[in-house]
Amino acid sequence: MLPTWRALTINASPGIRSISVSAISLLNFVPSTSTVDAHLVDKLQYFVSQASRLFVISGAGLSTESGIPDYRSEGVGLYARTDRRPMRYEEFVRSAKSRQRYWARNYVGWPLFSSHTPNAAHRTLRRWEETGKLHWLVTQNVDSLHSKAGQRRLTELHGCAHRVICLGCGTVSPREELQRRFEALNPEWSAQTSGVAPDGDVFLEDEQVLHFRVPSCTDCSGTLKPEVTFFGDNVNKATVQLVQDRLAESDALLVTGSSLQVYSGYRFLLAAKARNIPIAILNIGPTRADHLAELKVSGRCGEVLSVIQPQ
Predict the structure, then answer these.
(1) Of 210, 213, 272, 275, which has the most beta carbons under 10 Å away?
(2) Exposed e or buried b per residue across 274-285, where buried means at least 16 C-beta atoms within 10 angstroms of its C-beta
(3) In a domain, 164, yes or no
(4) Residues 300 and 265 grouped into a single domain
(5) pLDDT score, position 202
(6) Nearest Cα to 229, choosing from 136, 156, 146, 122?
(7) CA 150 to CA 118: how far, in whole Å?
């Protein structure tokens, strides 16, 4: 069962004096679904049992069960709930005001976002790795929940929000360290928000961020950015090649919690099909790759994966 928060007040740091997010239910971030077809679950069990080097792709639908909202889920994703859209790469790099707005919202949302913990699906995939069933896992998520669960054979395709990179010198540092710098620079700053968004973002009005101060790189005074692939940016070519190499070593591909609408993940389904690697998909709602899969199961990732045995 998913936990429910009837009310939540975020007291993120001494610098954030008044932040409240009320009436948040973790269930609000998971789209509704009918009872899982037991026959299809049996087929998924057979699919996993037959694989000796299973390749898994995970998406935002895996982390909604940990209370992290996503973008595209029908009825409950950001695109369905609001007309707001995520920051694009070109906007972030060209506009100091955009970076100020982004970091102010991220600063407010970080205490909650960083506190999320792995759910049953993350823990199951870690166990599959421990038994030798799972050859490699590629996640499109930037929440670090697979790492928190102990996953090792892992590629974070879109990076990780728990790391910060300098666009000037390339230095990578922990996001927690930047949070402390934000607090030191903004001791009197306060803000209120009434909602959370994916990837550590929250909703703030523009006037609330006008006096928020953003630090620069301590090494070169360059611009700091989360080490994540923003919308409009490209995944590192070396990362793509590493994933393609791991896929070529695999004998089955399982998608968990992704609609695969973004090409950065969808490309691996095309590659698997070209190599005649069998594909199964576990997701609530349709995906871009349904026509490529020999098996499609509609259900919550944690509920379904936890009953599959890595035989």
Answers:
(1) 272
(2) eeebbbbbbbbe
(3) no
(4) yes
(5) 75
(6) 156
(7) 10
Please indicate, yes or no, if residue 219 is contained in any of the structural domains.
no
Q: Determine the 3-state secondary structure of 55 from DSSP.
A: strand
* CATH number of the domain to which 62 belongs: 3.40.50.1220
At 67, is the pLDDT very low, low, confident or very high (cuts 50, 70, 90)?
A: confident
Q: How far apart (Å, rounded) are the C-alpha atoms in residues 112 and 125? A: 24
pLDDT digits (tens, 9 = 90+) for 2-21: 333 233 333 444 444 333 33
- Looking at the fold, whether 78 and 208 belong to one and the same domain comes out as yes
Note the pLDDT of residue 68. 85
Q: Is 297 helix (H, G, I), strand (E, B) or coil?
A: strand
Q: What does the block give as tokens for 276? A: 């005649």
| Domain identity same for 59 and 75 | no
Q: Which of 201, 233, 257, 224 is nearest to 86 (CA)?
A: 201
Is the domain of 105 the same as that of 246? no
DSSP per residue over 134-172, as a string?
Answer: EEEEEE---S-HHHHHT--SEEETTEEEEEEEETTT--E
193 lies in the same domain as 128: no
Domain region containing 265: 31-68+118-158+234-311
Q: What is the pTM of this model?
A: 0.87
Q: How high is the pLDDT of residue 12?
A: 41
Burial (CB < 10 A; 0-12, 13-18, 19+), residue 153, is: middle
> Are residues 264 and 181 part of one domain?
no
pLDDT band at 71, cuts 50/70/90? Answer: low
In a domain, residue 194? The reply is: yes
For residues 147-171, average pLDDT: 97
Are residues 53 and 135 in contact, defined by beta-carbon separation less than 8 angstroms?
Answer: yes
How confident is the model at residue 204, as a pLDDT? Answer: 82
- Does residue 249 lie within any of the structural domains? yes
131 plus 271 within the same structural domain: yes
158 is catalytic: yes
Q: What is the dihedral of CA 130, 132, 138, 140, to 10 degrees?
A: -40
Domain count, the chain: 2
* Arithmetic mean of pLDDT, 186-214: 82
